């Protein structure tokens, strides 16, 4: 059985991507949820998962200097273009591990063979259970910059879990923006659901993220959040979707009650089942599954 991967993305933060993902979760059956927004994971705030398993993830390698072999020649400092190394008491040291990109230049340049690369913890991965089924989520260690790899690991673990449990879908909360971590979250997925808002930056970032999905040949669809925030942009977003043949799956009006639900850490579609209209979320999931 092939597992369908649906990734919720947005060209920028603050569009309500995570509250939309959380609202979709109760309407998906037989699914694994994954939070791949590893730099700032917050789906757990709304889904309140019970952590069953936690592990450290080494998605990168860092320089390790043997002080016994180091002669203090300084060559590694000279060649490290990430400025990760320092001299202390006549020996090279790596004071800030996140700055090391594991490029190996120092390993090759060191005349004393004092440097090796060793696996380094870059984040934590959790396997959890929510009221709506299994969840896989992870968190990057602050300062680390390998979020794309952690996204890929989280996504794979969620898919493995879906296979193990016989689930038909994996619903992924992707990172905001269009950087490599976003590409990592959508490459090879069945659908990128782009959540946008009708503002200048929302429309601009929608175009950028859609362009990314197009380049890597991932199907996309649009959901307008906070529609009515500005009629100046809601209309053009509709026209953009139509002109580019992108399914526009729905519009969620700007609403104070919805915002308050999120602030209370509640899933909007659960506490406001008739908002924006009766059966909206159920129909939305049906539309998603047939694309
Ligand atoms: S290049 Fe090697 S020997 Fe020279 S300072 Fe760096 S670690 Fe020490
Ligand atoms: S592996 Fe590369 S980034 Fe890390 S300390 Fe060595 S030269 Fe610098």
Could you spell the SSE succession in H and E letters?
EHEHEEHEEHEEEHEHEHEHEHHH
pLDDT under 50 segments (min length 5)? none
Instruction: Kindly report how far apart the N and C termini lie.
Output: 18 Å
Order the strands across the largest sheet as they lie in space: 3-8-9-2-10-1-11-12-13
Q: How would you describe the shape?
A: elongated
**Structural Rg:** 22 Å
Layout of helices and strands:
Blueprint: E1 4-10, H1 17-24, E2 31-35, H2 43-47, E3 50-57, E4 60-65, H3 75-79, E5 86-88, E6 91-93, H4 105-109, E7 115-120, E8 123-130, E9 133-140, H5 147-165, E10 169-176, H6 180-186, E11 191-196, H7 200-215, E12 220-227, H8 231-243, E13 248-253, H9 256-263, H10 268-271, H11 280-290
Parallel strand pairs: 1-10, 1-11, 2-9, 2-10, 11-12, 12-13
Antiparallel strand pairs: 3-8, 4-7, 5-6, 8-9
Helix pairs in contact: 5-6
The structure holds iron/sulfur cluster (2 copies).
One iron/sulfur cluster binds next to helix 4.
């Amino acid at each position: 059985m092939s597992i369908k991967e649906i990734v919720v993305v947005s060209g920028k933060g603050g569009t309500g991507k995570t509250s939309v993902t959380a609202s979709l979760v109760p309407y998906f059956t037989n699914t694994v949820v994954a939070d791949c927004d590893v730099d700032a994971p917050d789906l757990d705030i709304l889904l309140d998962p019970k952590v069953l398993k936690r592990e450290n993830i080494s998605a990168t390698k860092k320089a390790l200097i043997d002080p016994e072999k180091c002669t203090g020649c300084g060559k590694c400092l000279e060649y490290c273009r990430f400025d990760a190394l320092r001299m202390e008491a006549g020996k090279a040291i790596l004071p800030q591990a996140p700055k090391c990109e594991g490029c190996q230049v120092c390993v090759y340049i060191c005349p004393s063979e004092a440097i090796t690369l060793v696996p380094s913890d870059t984040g934590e991965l959790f396997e959890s259970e929510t009221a709506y089924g299994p969840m896989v989520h992870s968190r990057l260690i602050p300062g680390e910059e390998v979020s794309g790899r952690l996204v890929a690991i989280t996504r794979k673990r969620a898919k493995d879990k879906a296979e193990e449990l016989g689930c038909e879908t994996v619903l992924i909360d992707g990172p905001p923006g269009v950087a490599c971590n976003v590409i990592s979250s959508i490459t090879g997925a069945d659908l990128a659901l782009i959540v946008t808002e009708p503002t200048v930056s929302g429309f601009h970032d929608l175009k950028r993220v859609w362009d990314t999905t197009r380049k890597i040949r991932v199907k996309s669809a649009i959901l307008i959040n906070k529609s009515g925030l500005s009629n100046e942009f809601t209309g053009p977003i509709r026209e953009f979707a139509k002109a580019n043949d992108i399914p526009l799956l729905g519009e969620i009006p700007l609403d104070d009650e919805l915002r308050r639900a999120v602030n209370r850490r509640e899933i909007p579609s659960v506490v406001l089942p008739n908002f924006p209209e009766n059966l909206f979320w159920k129909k939305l999931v049906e539309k998603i599954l047939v694309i």
